[in-house]
Amino acid sequence: MVQPFANPAGTSKTHNSQQGGRLLSGHVKLVPNERSGMPLQEWINEIPNTGLIRYRMRFNKEVVFVTSPKGLSEVLVQKSYEFVKPAKLRLGLGRILGVGLIVAEGSQHKKQRKLLMPAFLHRHIKDLYPIFWDKSVALARVLSENISPSQDKPAKVFDVADWLARATLDILGSAGLGEEFDTLHHPDNEICSAYRNVFEQKPPRGTLAMGAFFVREAFISIFGISRKDSISMATKTLTDVARRLIARKRSNRQVEGSKDQHDQGRDIISVMLASDSFTDRMLENHLLTFLAAGHETTATSMTWALYALCLYPNVQQQLRDEVRKALPQHIDQAHAAEPMKAELLDSLPYLHAVCNEVFRIYPPAGLTRRVAVQNTSILGQFIPAGTEIVISPRAVNVSKDLWGPDAATFNPDRWMRPSQANTGGGLTNFSFMTFLHGPRSCIGQGFARGEFASLLAALVGTFEMSLAQDPDIVIETGLTSRPKGGLLVQFRKI
Ligand code: HEM
What cofactor does this protein call for (predicted)? Predict the structure, then answer.
């Protein structure tokens, strides 16, 4: 049986998180790749626990890793506003995103989320499926055009991570903002370059680097120093683009004032504008948030999906058979086809199963953090204010207590068993943490699922794919956990 990570680089061999701590650095050495959630996915199954595992990081700072559905539900639902995102994360993200939904806390978050929810309801998202599909077909077409037809069996190796990031940026441009970025054909487009700058930045690692980061940030904020680094330049570009888009949308609305909302655009920003609840500044922050939160996560998930399809050729073939049988005219005659319907794409059981299994085994956000804002408790255990809480989708998604002995096996069939289409057989809905749960869960989940299914179906329906590199990969963790150095896949036209 092939393991879902041919070699889970960065995995620790530690079995007992209570032992082996050092005076200043706690258990830092035992969690070399903590941010990806990799060591924690071993701990959750190997360290006997009743819902909480405690370990220590730099300067012996205590971290509480929550492993049980009841504990997760307390942190994410019942007491969600008692646990906030850490200052470092908000500082870093706030620079890129402004105070949008991801960065806001407390009553500000509650208010923003309530205003934004209507734009993400299924009745709006399903109108976006034709866009998801057309952009997915556009990706398949551009890749096909890059494969030389002169060969006997036309095939070419692509580094898929960059192509997928551009495809998801184009989808967000069109479905999120009603704007054609066309980065598939223009990889040096200003937005694309700006995001490359942002995502290529590595968060500070190590005690010294972290200390230097905080001192520099404090200096900049106390003395109001203006920044000239690459993130600031990228943020300026993105903010300028956002302003331009919003101004254009507003003036279009005024010109077309008499038309109803549906005629004025189905994209998310149009739906938000139609509600008349947002100032331009708010729209700007939300727009930057959706762009950043929405394209890199889906692109990373798609990269892992292609990796999985290459590791498991039987799954790839079964999926291709289903897609080509159910969508022949959409796959082969994209121009002539009817617009894709949400009902049609969502009705493919194996596609649904493969998407869910990829999301379960390869969550792009392997770990997220919270900090207790007041003295509180989890599972009856006292948690002092300031304690860091770790939630690891990568670990919980493969907990044997929640999924059974084959928890870590990549097996889409678990979602095909009777009455398991929505659970995969996981014990509770907190067994599947990829989009989190509760008031701070991913607001874009429906959007992400629609575009993900479209991209996967269009690619697997058009190409046979195989790995063109060593299957042992190192996971690189920046804002998301992706294969280090990209992923080389050979595409052969069917
Ligand atoms: C496979 C794709 C995606 C995954 C796995 C994913 C996962 C997540 C996760 C885990 C969070 C919670 C982060 C935390 O609180 O620490 C989150 C939040 C969020 N996501 Fe996604 N996301 C995806 C795609 C998208 C898309 C396409 C959009 C927008 C169109 C989006 C917008 C957001 C926003 C705005 C939040 C903040 C929600 C809040 O705090 O209320 N995401 N996402």
Answer: heme
Q: Given a cut of 80, is residue 301 above it in pLDDT?
A: yes
Quote the pLDDT of residue 224.
54
| Any ligand 1 atom below 6 A from CB of 83 | no
What are the start-end ranges of the H helices in 365-466? 393-396, 400-403, 445-462
Contact 484, 474 (CB under 8 A): yes
Q: Select from 436, 442, 443, 456 the residue to mutate for testing ligand 1; criterion: most ligand atoms less than 8 Å from CB.
A: 442
Q: How far is CA 258 from the centre of its chain?
A: 38
Q: Are 189 and 282 spatial neighbours (Cβ–Cβ below 8 Å)?
A: no
Q: Over the chain, what is the mean pLDDT?
A: 84
Q: Does ligand 1 have an atom closer than 6 angstroms to the CB of 300? A: no
Is the confidence at residue 399, as pLDDT, over 50? yes
More confident residue, 274 or 256: 274
Q: Is the pLDDT of residue 57 over 90?
A: no
444: closest CA among 75, 119, 44, 12?
Answer: 119
367 touches ligand 1 (CB under 6 Å): no
State mean pLDDT over 221-228.
54
Check pocket membership of 97 for ligand 1, CB cut-off 6 A: no
Residue 244 token pair: 């331009």
Could you give the CA distance from residue 219 to residue 215 in angstroms, rounded to a whole number? 6
442 annotated as a binding-site residue: yes
Strands (E), 339-453: 368-372, 376-378, 381-383, 388-391
What average pLDDT does the segment 321-334 reach? 83
For 136, the token pair is 């997915």
322 in Cβ contact with 351 (< 8 Å): yes
Nearest to 393 by CA among 456, 301, 291: 301
Smallest CA separation from ligand 1 atom 2, residue? 298
Give, for 330, the enclosing helix (H) or strand (E): helix 328-332
Cα 33 to Cα 39: distance, rounded to the nearest angstrom: 7
Q: Of 463, 225, 262, 456, which Cα lies nearest the Cα of 362?
A: 456
Does the CB atom of residue 57 touch ligand 1 within 6 A?
A: no
Q: Going by CA atoms, what residue is nearest to atom 41 of ligand 1?
A: 440
Cα(275) to centroid(ligand 1), Å: 22
Instruction: Dump pLDDT digits (tens) for 441-453.
Output: 999 999 999 999 9
Rounded CA separation 358/347 (Å): 18
Confidence of residue 272 (pLDDT cuts 50, 70, 90): confident
What are the structural domains, with CATH classification, of the chain?
1-97+366-404 (3.30.43.20), 98-365+434-493 (1.10.630.10)
Nearest CA to ligand 1 atom 15: 440
Q: Quick: pLDDT tens for 384-393.
A: 999 999 999 9
73 CB within 6 A, ligand 1: no
471 C-alpha to center of ligand 1: Å? 28
DSSP states of 93-115 as a string? HHHHH-S-TTT--HHHHHHHHHH
